Amino acid sequence: MMERHEIEAFLTLAEELHFRRATERLGLAHGRVSQTIKQLERRLGVSLFDRTSRRVALTPAGQRLYDDLAPAYRRIQEAVARTIAYGKGVTGTLRVGFSSQWAGDAVLEAADVFRGRYPDCAVEVQEVQLADPFGPMRAGELDLQLTEFPVDEPDLVAGPVIFSEPRALIVPARHPFARRESVCLEDLARTSLVAMSGAIPDYWLDYHYPRETPEGRPITHSASAVYWAEVLSLVAMGRGVSPAALRAAQYHGRPGIVFVPFRDAPPIEYGLIWPRSGHTARVRAFAEILHQIAP
Q1: Which CATH number fits domain 92-164+270-293: 3.90.950.10, 3.40.50.2000, 1.10.246.80, 3.40.190.10?
Q2: Given pLDDT bands bounded at 50, 70 and 90, which one contains residue 54?
Q3: Which residues pair with 262 in a beta bridge?
Q4: Which family does this protein fall into (predicted)?
Q5: Contacts (Cβ under 8 Å, ≥6 apart) of 18
Q6: For the residues 267-276, what does the mean pLDDT come to?
């Protein structure tokens, strides 16, 4: 028979093939993994690892033990995780929204990890339009959402920032700013903005589509759009410029527009929100995973 600490030490060393890394991964004292493996080999009467000053490698017997033991141990861990999840209420269905494609990528990646960790809980993912950023959640369609901050709503909880993105200014390809390496916030007073409209709080609009520069110079708003695709079309038509995350260029680049980085604008922060009465075990578990894997 193998004790639990022997199984964990063997499997970890077999994966790391490095005593120090295996020891650090297990959070053990220096030399503990080496001692455990030596005791295990003596008891089994076989050598599991070849050790030299430069490398650690599995012996044929060690490889056979790993191939047989690793899948069984994973099944045990999964069974324990399912039991804990069931006891904590991580079951049922979790509905998660996102408001941009790059936020959607993070949500979908987290959903894959979540399903593997909590197989008794389904995850449904949907896009939320910026024109109505809180509507689906208030309608009871979502339990959790990854969205642009700031969010200051009495019925919603704004969790910690998950990641942030540098800002850029989307300009028409023939605009003078299109030939620059960067722009500054004061430059907004020399052009006009295409802004989002809809059921959007004023504080959110003022933050992302300001009416004046940091020095107090007025910024003209020339057009508004309900959907993001409209913003891109209006900018391409020369109706104005629009702030956005710089990463949007990777997803929404198209003829007629150029993404010019800001050199002095704060980044756009993305965080999780959920209903004030909805801080469930499912929400907590997904938030933890997303925080771990987010860029």
Answers
A1: 3.40.190.10
A2: confident
A3: 183
A4: Belongs to the LysR transcriptional regulatory family.
A5: 56
A6: 94
